[in-house]
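Duplicate of #3305? Posting structure anyway:
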């Protein structure tokens, strides 16, 4: 954190410590403390890095939200929260746990930060497969839905878990921006739609992540990157079984405990 001043270092450490305490005790913070509420975007991303350092757990994936010329958000997903489909996942404490279906990219090579932007072809060459994924959201901030974007970023964008399927290696000819997708909860289809990703083509979100200006940790071979909801967001609860299927891409399921 050499590019920020002492006061910012103190604020970043305080926020990271509070969020880490909530994570470790499986509790929820009502909101960030008053002295931390003015956290900047750069500081919020620095909180993510400090949380990663304090946890000492490898990053296994990333979540990214992208709307061209409007917004780019991202957060790490740690190894214990990035699992293959068919798993059972325990919900963490949260006032508003949620489930959503997304397109995920699995990387076969590193994409470290560099001065010149990666081209779409360079990013595509680093993708080993594209697959159906489910994200489980369980924010650690009680006011997450109403909180400023900077607070959401500091809270790792509310991620609880990332569940991914087997996917497709021959994905370049698939129209990812218009895939038909269904989300079923406990065997009942709750949504069926085409497209629906705010980025348009989910691949554009991956390219934006590779070139993200605030990103401190590199994209690594083996990382799984989810790219924003294609199904909308639905309430989650213990005992629920969710299944997401993308036509021509694959499917994935998870049981929540």
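Output from current build:
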């Amino acid at each position: 954190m050499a590019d920020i001043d002492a006061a910012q270092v103190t604020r970043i450490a305080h926020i990271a410590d509070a969020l880490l305490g909530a994570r470790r005790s499986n509790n929820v913070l009502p909101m960030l403390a008053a002295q931390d509420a003015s956290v900047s975007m750069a500081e919020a991303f620095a909180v993510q890095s400090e949380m990663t350092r304090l946890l000492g757990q490898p990053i296994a994936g990333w979540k990214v939200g992208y709307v061209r010329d409007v917004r780019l958000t991202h957060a790490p997903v740690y190894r214990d929260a990035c699992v293959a489909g068919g798993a059972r996942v325990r919900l963490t404490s949260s006032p508003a746990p949620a489930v959503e279906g997304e397109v995920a990219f699995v990387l076969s090579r590193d994409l470290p930060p560099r001065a010149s932007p990666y081209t779409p072809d360079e990013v595509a060459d680093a993708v080993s497969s594209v697959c159906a994924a489910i994200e489980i959201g369980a924010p650690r901030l009680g006011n997450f839905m109403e909180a400023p974007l900077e607070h959401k970023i500091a809270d790792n964008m509310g991620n609880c878990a990332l569940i991914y399927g087997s996917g497709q290696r021959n994905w370049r000819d698939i129209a990812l921006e218009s895939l038909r997708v269904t989300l079923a909860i406990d065997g009942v289809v709750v949504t069926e739609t085409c497209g629906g990703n705010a980025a348009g083509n989910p691949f554009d979100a991956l390219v934006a992540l590779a070139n993200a200006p605030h990103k401190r940790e590199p994209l690594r071979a083996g990382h799984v990157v989810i790219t924003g909801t294609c199904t909308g967001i639905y309430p989650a609860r213990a005992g629920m079984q969710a299944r997401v299927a993308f036509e021509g891409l694959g499917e994935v399921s998870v049981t929540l405990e």
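Confirmed duplicate; merging threads. Residues 58-256 form a domain with the Fumarylacetoacetate hydrolase; domain 2 fold (CATH 3.90.850.10). The longest strand covers residues 127-137.
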